[in-house]
Write a structure and sequence with these properties.
9 helices, mainly alpha
């Protein structure tokens, strides 16, 4: 009886391996051949699922976004989580998240020189902003009474902070352990609360 192959699972497996290969070797060195070898497949097998390296990277980006969305939107132990706890799920606080952050950094490093990747990065940024907005809406009571301009400012500020923490944690992991990342994020959220307080819309 022929073996039944779960093609969707195999595509996801290749994309997941690609994340690790990019994180370990950088974007340029993450060739299709290297990704195939790391996944235990031939390049021909990988080509059966993806037309190009860029297609693999796109699948990997989508997979990372899906994983992050699942972490940012799920409840913790059936109880309401704090905004700090939720946003911390996107930081490089463990091995898996460190790999994801290293992957993002390698991707960002190629964006400025590639028009297609620039467009892809715009989409990635919008998805992140959408996720952050959901987090604030669900876990920050002040959000409901802030005017739209203030909300936009908060989201931009958080995005910049999260990106900065990602870069710091990946490039200087000894200086930015999980506790330090979370402490700095908490400090920034506290500053945002103070900044937003006088800007609340009248109800």
């Amino acid at each position: 009886m022929p073996k039944i192959v779960d093609h969707a699972k195999r595509r996801e497996e290749i994309a997941l391996v690609a994340c690790q290969v990019v994180a370990d070797n950088g974007f340029e060195q993450a060739t299709v051949a290297r990704i195939a070898r790391a996944a235990g497949y031939t390049t021909g097998m990988v080509a059966h699922y993806y037309d190009s390296k860029q297609d693999i990277i796109l699948a990997a980006l989508r997979l990372m976004l899906l994983r992050i969305e699942e972490r940012l939107t799920r409840a913790r132990d059936g109880s309401e989580a704090s905004l700090l706890a939720v946003l911390s799920e996107a930081l490089a606080v463990d091995k898996q998240r460190f790999t994801e952050c290293a992957f993002w950094m390698a991707f960002w490093g190629q964006v400025s020189a590639d028009k297609k990747l620039k467009k892809l990065n715009v989409w990635v940024h919008r998805e992140y902003m959408r996720l952050y907005e959901r987090c604030f809406s669900a876990h920050w009571p002040e959000w409901a009474v802030l005017p739209q301009a203030a909300r936009d400012q908060v989201l931009r500020s958080v995005a910049i902070t999260m990106n900065g923490l990602t870069v710091s944690a990946v490039t200087s992991p000894r200086d930015w352990p999980a506790a330090t990342q979370i402490e700095h994020l908490n400090f920034h959220l506290d500053l945002l609360r103070r900044w937003a307080k006088p800007k609340r819309a009248k109800t």
